[in-house]
Amino acid sequence: MYDFVSGCSCEEQLRKTADQLASQSAEKVIYQTSLMSALLHGVYDGTTTVARLLEKGDFGLGTFNQLDGELVAFDRQVWQLRADGSARPAHPDQLSPFAVMTFFTPEHQHHFSEKSSREEVHRVIDSVITSDNHFCALRISGDFVSVQTRTVPCQCRPYRSMPDVLGNQPTFDFRQRTGELIGFRTPQYMQGINVAGYHEHFITDDRQGGGHILDYVLAQGTLTFGAISKLVVDLPQDGDFLQANLNPDNLDEAIRSVES
User: Fold this and answer.
1) FRET partner for 251 with CA separation of 20 to 30 A, picked from 22, 50, 110, 195?
2) pTM for this one?
3) What's the pLDDT tens digit per position in 127-140?
4) In this structure, is residue 250 part of a structural domain?
């Protein structure tokens, strides 16, 4: 049977409708390997490969084994942001002790045509996704007045805790650069499991530099973002994780100190 109004067969219409319904009902999920509290304690070796992470999402952030730099992923590509401020493509068999991934399907878009601070960008997101009880994934493609970042140097056993490691963290100041900002807003009740609040990484448009964001000023660019209501966590089974103190008294203070 052929529908002369739409110009396609009923079978084609049914298939299109099914595809649309599947797209609309596709579940938005954050996949996470290990816990932030484990990373804080010094659990720096994981068994999850970059290839495995890409099976769980096309967008995300994290770190690499031995705390060897920052991980940023978007458009199904994963990059390693190194301690010298440089960036390089990650190998599929590289391992991560902590990463957060999702298939990025933003629901909202906002264009910034004037200079905006990090706080002003966050206020736009907070004004749309008003509940702090869901996750939010965000991306900015644009021109930045400045981006302050840090990257973690590769560690050797015996591992020190992350607050001790970051006492001498290298920092970088990217000026007048175009690039991509990848991030998540995580509910406050998730502190320790993840990083509560905003957690963002940056990479330049030439894919030659970047890092974990400390602060930024956006000149102009496009923000896309959306809420996510499901989290899946894979917990390690090795001795380092099983013996780690994952609930220290100063957990919130320690995480805020390493993230800011």
Assistant:
1) 50
2) 0.88
3) 999 999 999 999 99
4) yes
